[in-house]
Amino acid sequence: MRRTKIVATVGPASSTPDVLRELLIAGVDVFRLNFSHGTHESHRAAYELIREAAQAVGRHVAILQDLSGPKIRTGDHEGDLSLMLEPGDTLRIAAGNRPGGPGRVSTPYAPLVASARPGDRLLLDDGRIELRVVETASGELVTSVVNGGPLGPRKGINAPGIALPASAVTRKDEEDLRFGLSLGVDLVALSFVQTADDVLKAGALMREAGRVVPIIAKIERPAALDNLDGILAASCGVMVARGDLGLEMPLEQVPRVQKHLIRQTRAAGLPAILATQVFESMRVEPRPTRAEVSDAANAVYEGADAIMLAGETAAGAFPVRVVQTLDAVIRDAESWPSFEHITPTVEATGSPHGRALCEAAVTLAKTAHAEAIVAVTREGRTVRLLASLRPPTGIFAATSNMDVVGASTLHWGVTPVLTPPSHGIDVLTPALQIDALDQLFVSRGLLRSGAVVVFVNVSAELRRTDVNFVTVRRVGETAARS
Fold first, then answer.
1. Euclidean distance between CA atoms 381 and 357, whole angstroms
2. 6 and 307 Cβ atoms separated by less than 8 Å
3. CA distances from 200 to 17, 81, 178, 208, 214 (A)
4. List 201, 218, 221, 381, catalytic entry
5. Rounded to the nearest 5°, which phi and psi values hold at 132?
6. How far apart are the C-alpha atoms of 205 and 183, rounded to whole Å?
């Protein structure tokens, strides 16, 4: 069983029924809809095709909505042409939407023009072009080209070291979020998070919309590192978005920050997703580079819950092969489980007895050589905690809550199992509940008859006798005893 999950972005190269089915068979656990591109209509079509493909192959797969956030971009160009910039050229950047031309471009993001100062650096088009701010004029920046090249329309602008006042939730994000929730997305990724308030605002919008799903905070600006504890407390997971992060801070610091983010996120009992240019060369080549393979394997060794593919599956030439390759790399890396052991804090677990029960389940699974841990859960907290403890065996999330099925798909080593309502924790005593799950898992072929399995259930309620238990048993023998 592969424990580290694979997130794949859907795009022109992967939005047909056949390719989606092949991606699922290859091992995709979560599909990402990137709302920086496409329309509501195109995302609706992709969502429906994903659900149909998952049903066809008999898989639970989560759908992650990735909101655009306040991405700073240049505007359109006259004739939609590229501008050729040479070192030493002067380029004016004006606030507004006026089409760009020789020597000038615009940006709809006015706070950049208001915040930048002489001497500041600006990186355009993923860092390919570097500018130095020379002076600020009324409503525009005068810059000098340091590193040039062709500049197309609507290219990203990164402003390392410049304090920007933007909230992570734009007006477009609000509209997109309401749309995604109405579709039924399982997870939402929030771009350019800088403070806990950004996450809390998105959560408030969800409550207004009448549906709340887990929020994954994308760490793309250094300000987020200063506020990491608050962000972790407000969110349900973190994405280490190395692309913008590597442009907003010195590049040599990114590997250290990546390790720090994964370690801190795991200590908070939350999932960490590693993203950006994992197998970038496979957009055009059938094989990744050795450095890319090492990068992906190291993410496994560091304990990342998931690895995300972006352009590789959205617009690459080999979307299925890249997933197959990543699956093989992860499996080999997991055959040597060298990731650091991190014990989640009590705050992350919700209660001291909850952590104790989960730690007991993991210890029992090790000593009894159990083949699986079955966590009975209503809200997914037990599963999240077990995953953060990194047990040597697989984890099943037994739940009658479809929202928990979607959220659990992302967690390390977890296989969500939708159970009938009659197996809910409010209906049966622990003994009858375990008997019912025993029969269900064996009949579905999820566990073999005779396998040793640990069952665990955690609740904050300490007055009830039908919750808070951990037990080990050999499954498939219920019918024989009766």
1. 13
2. yes
3. 36, 41, 16, 12, 12
4. 218
5. -120, 125
6. 15
List 73, 321, 381, 384, catalytic entry: 73
Report pLDDT for 168.
82
| Known active-site residue 325 | no
CATH number at 5-69+167-334: 3.20.20.60
| Nearest residue to 173 via CA among 207, 198, 153 | 198
Residue in the block written with tokens 């909230």: 167
pLDDT of residue 465: 65
Known catalytic membership, residue 32 = yes
Residue 477, pLDDT score: 77
Got the DSSP string for 214-263? -EEEEE-SHHHHHTHHHHHHHSS-EEEEHHHHHHHS-GGGHHHHHHHHHH
Decide yes or no: CATH 2.40.33.10 for domain 78-158.
Answer: yes
> In the chain, what are the domain boundaries?
5-69+167-334, 78-158, 346-481
From the list 3, 5, 21, 32, the catalytic residue is: 32
Q: State residue 242's pLDDT score.
A: 93
Looking at residue 482, what is its pLDDT?
45
Residue 351, CA distances (Å) to 385, 386, 458 in order: 11, 14, 10
This prediction has a pTM of 0.89
Question: How many CA within 13 A on the CB side of residue 259?
Answer: 10
Q: What are phi and psi of 123, to 5 degrees?
A: -115, 125
Question: Would you state the pLDDT for residue 433?
Answer: 81
Please answer whether residues 303 and 342 qualify as being in contact, where contact means their C-beta atoms are separated by less than 8 angstroms: yes
Fold matches, 5-69+167-334 and 78-158:
no
What pLDDT is recorded for position 154?
A: 86
- Spot the catalytic one: 107, 143, 265, 276: 276
Say whether 172 is catalytic.
Answer: no
**How is domain 346-481 classified at the CATH fold level?**
Pyruvate Kinase; Chain: A, domain 1 (3.40.1380)
pLDDT beneath 70, residues of the chain = 337-340, 345-351, 422-429, 465-466, 478-482
211 belongs to the catalytic site: no
Strands 306-309 and 272-275: parallel
Identify residue 248 by its one-letter amino acid code.
E
* Dist CA 239 CA 249 (whole Å): 17
Which tens digit of pLDDT belongs to each residue from 16-41? 999 999 999 999 999 999 998 899 99
Q: Based on C-alpha coordinates, what's the Rg of the chain?
A: 24
Core vs surface per residue 70-92: b (16+ CB within 10 A) or e: bbbbbbebeeeeebebeeeeebe
List pLDDT tens digits, range 322-370.
999 999 999 999 998 666 677 776 555 566 788 889 999 999 999 999 9
